[in-house]
TrEMBL record:
GO biological process: protein transport
Sequence ranges of the ARM repeats: 252-294, 421-463, 463-492
Pfam families reported in the protein's UniProt record: Arm
Name of the protein this chain belongs to: Importin subunit alpha-6
Gene3D superfamilies per record: Leucine-rich Repeat Variant
This protein's UniProt keywords: Protein transport, Transport
SUPFAM superfamilies: ARM repeat
Species of origin: Hyalella azteca
Sequence ranges of Polar residues compositional bias: 72-85, 133-143
Region of interest: Disordered: 1-22, 69-156
Stated family: Belongs to the importin alpha family.
Amino acid sequence: MMYEPLTLPPIRRPKKSKIKSSEINMDLEAIRARRLRLEALTLSMRSRSLEPGTPVGRSNVHQPRTAAFSASKMTRQQKEPNLSASKGIRLEPLNRASPDMGANVLDKHRSSDPLLGRRGSDGEASTPKPGSPSENIYNSSTLDYEDLGRPPEEAEPVEPEILQDSELQDILEQLRSSSESTQLVGARAARERVSETENDCVDRYIRAGILPLLLALFHKDHNPELQFESLWAITNIAAGRNEHTKAVIDAGGLPGILRLLSSRLEKVALQAVWAVSNIIGDNAAMRDYVVEAGVVPILSQLVHRYQSVEAQRIISWTLSNLLRFKPVGMKDEERIMCLKALQPYLQADDAAVRVDAARGIEFASDGSDAHIRQVLELNELSTFISFLDSADYRLVQVGAKIIGNIVSGDDELTEQVVKAGAIPPLVALLRDDEEGIRKEAAWAVSNILAGTAEQIKEAMNAGVLAELLYILDDPEETSQVGREASWCLSNICNGGADETIDELVTAGTITTMLDYHKKNRHDKDLTTLLLMACKEAIKRTTRIAALKESLNYGETEQLLSLLIDEGNENALGLWNEIKSKVFNKS
């Protein structure tokens, strides 16, 4: 019985987005339900308005600052945003080389040094959108200072473990004090304790009720140091496990954090940005909730308000986090606002800022053709291509991902990349020392080769065939890079012009593909890909003599017979094609 398997057309393969797993299923309704339970406990402890006539929780417009708030210079330990992690906790000096962005490991180390920024200019605060959650949840999120000395009437019994923790009890008493200097001591002690790596400590402090005490200090605008210490403690709590982040939200922490984004003091505003990033870095539902509360326009304003390196690093990392999880729960105007906010950071002097901005663009380009067009409307395609020649391998890898995402779109999008000159640097990267860069470059090239015959010819003229054959022949090359190279060759076989197929056959590609299959027979999908590609090339080529010279009849028969005996229809179809067309055998 003769089989005629289907021919595999050239295929573009968008990346599948990796979504951070959550230990606890999070949804917005669950957040709101828990907030209602908290509101029952805090109903009698609402805070005053910040100024007469100003709604509670609304971001008021600050007047220009007349005196600077003194801050130490950044000489001690501080962690820059981790380019690969969705959450960040301070540890490393800002001048330290950025960590490997390929390592998706959340750094749980924390230090006791605050985020200190330079003085910045003041600006107007953003008002929440009408009808948005930020209007509805502010009122239940804060406590009145006079009520802090007594627990809520319906509070649960205090656990013995908490009562026996004398240090914790001292901190709680200090935070309940009517003296702001005493509250500052308590807030500082709290943030030092919750900055430790032990999650049990954070759990215990949350159960003891420290969150509402810290959140109540957010409204002391006349005492920014007290705001800063309490905000820093909240930031590190939100950097913990999923339930820690949720506890901050359940306690009504988001409105106060969003309000402090518009603080007149730069270090307070930037600490609020860090807190936002730790919340949105928890999972997609958290991110969508914060976006719904109106964070995007506020962050966009901060891009132009604060120009210090510290500010650029934290804001670019946070904007990138907004686009990290898929699907992105944003309106188009919010997505575009994020892209435009990231755009100036692409040219930043600081390498970490450039990489984080590029990561945000990469996340945004990993989507539909419409989303890819939003990225291209920035008119930064030449910038993305220039990343491929960067001395910073992190930027090279991200640049290759951006280009790969763009060419995963339709032929018109791919043509823009081809015309902009992306093929030569991508081909050069196929021999890069870094495996991750070779893999991303090969994936991008495979999507270009899934385009038109003219686009395939452009890649052939740039020497892509020799590089692909080198990858398959290299015994030390990884299977991931080899698989991407196999996709490239398959797309050439199925979409190239006749002259391109002849060039491919003359170069001995069929033999190389069969040899590579022989070494990877366990990979059934790869086997199918290579066999169908070989059959298509043999069917179309006119270079029969060259093909006959490169193929050994006995070895080819032995290899394909093993697959035929296993019932592989593609192997049978290929062998019949080789026998009849190359060796003139029936």
